[in-house]
Fold this sequence. Notes:
Elements: H1 4-16, E1 21-23, E2 29-31, H2 37-49, H3 58-76, H4 85-93, H5 97-108, H6 112-130, H7 135-141, H8 147-158, H9 162-167, H10 179-185
Antiparallel strand pairs: 1-2
Helix pairs in contact: 3-4, 3-5, 3-6, 6-8, 7-8
Amino acid sequence: MVSERCILAVKAALSHFQLHFVMMDMGEVDILEDISDEDMQKLKLMLLQSGLELMEDNKIILIEKIKSIVIEMIHFSSDVPLMNYSDHISSKLNYDYTYLSNIFSEVKGITIQQYIILNKVEKIKELISYNELNFTEIAYKLHYSSAAHLSNQFKKVTGLTPSQYKNIKYKNRRPIEELDIACKDK
Length: 186
């Protein structure tokens, strides 16, 4: 539940059932009263129709939190990270990174690092499309050691250099929500 659209959809669904709730960090909602099993099933269906899923499995919840942190770091933060991604994720969730990494890989079939790279590549595509920053500035913004490092990683994922991507007419971009699925399909 990272986007405003998601938050509005959840609020509307909960209001429909006249439930009182508190919005929590990282896509969590605390419902203040008990909800019947029948209403819970209806709520799940309503959220599913909005493209959202009610999660009750602790592993899945933890994975969604990891994904939300990665998306926030890469797509919505304008600052260069002060620490590396693994330390940042670990400190935000108060878990050892190895533990988080093992759970993520077990459930998603890709590593957190692969997921980070997929998000960075999509952000690079976005920034190239805006045509406001050069490749060195994009590399700095996304915490690459150099434009060459960015270019090598971009080419490994897309098969194109950033310059080639910039020159193609129809840019192939993926929705953030589908990045972990896209990696498993390769």
